[in-house]
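Listing S7. Sequence submitted for prediction.
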Amino acid sequence: MKIALLSVTKSGLKISKQLKMKLSQDPRIFQVDIFHKNVKETLRRIFDDYDAIIGIMAMGIMVRSICGLLSDKRRDPAIIVMDDAGKHVISLISGHLGGANDLTLEIANLTSARPVITTSTDVHGCMGIDALAKKYYWKIKNTDKIVKFNRALLDGAKIIIESPENLEYLFNDQLFRKSYMIKKGEDKIIKAILDKDEIKIKPCRLVAGVGTKKGINEEKIIEGLKKALSFLDLPLERLDIIATGEMKKGEKGIINASRILKKPLKFVDLNDLRLEDTHSKSSFVEDKFGVGSVCEAAALHVAGRGSRLILRKTSYDGIAIAVAVSREKVF
């Protein structure tokens, strides 16, 4: 995730600097940039380049500055506003699909500000269909039906999730259990069904790239995968593929972990690893293999063309793990 922090006052700039330090510790966040003053001009220039934009300013300034830039809830960045005393942090735009609500809660936790969430499903303790898709990295085809389905949830309806895949891990999600039921389906795609209407859903490919020191056993690797996915608030069952470099073909720990978890294991050719632009850089790995990070490169390659990292390299006792998600067109 790339985040832009905008401020207009000295106190706002101070908060931006403090927030940058704290957000940069999150392995889901890859870049945090600070911009000061010239709000309208800056927003026009950066609006499409960041996943989230946080304005440390009066909400009116942000609203007036972004109104001509918004285009589509599927593509607009998360927009968050925080007052320059750091007392309140408000999710303004793209609360669900853009992740503004979750980021607002994280900022509140980091700064002790009071979070302000106004999306109806959230304030009534429901998980909207768009929030469900965002959390589990699903793509929704007919987004025009989101409002109808979410309104039904607020009226007490239960939505059926019909799937050919095993989605039992969803039952561990308390908010999911409150509003949804699972039914075995025959079609190749997932469907959310409300009466005679339906929303078509397809999961994005989720790949964990793994690099290890020699001789690491499968128990440690599985525990490392669980810890990595916990940063994303995802169960291990949501993972689709495990990937690593071809130099790890003899590592029984990785092979056995794949077998135990019943997840496909892909070995990536060294030349293909070198083609990937990784976020993390290890001089040792680069000198030895010519790639900045084996786990990041393997995850990106197997996730497919245009894929993106959603968890940068994280290390656990001799194990390095990164997670990438596909960006291929699914509908």
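Caption to Listing S7: primary sequence and predicted structure tokens for the chain studied. Residues 19 and 75 are 25 Å apart (CA to CA). The two ends are 24 Å apart (CA to CA).
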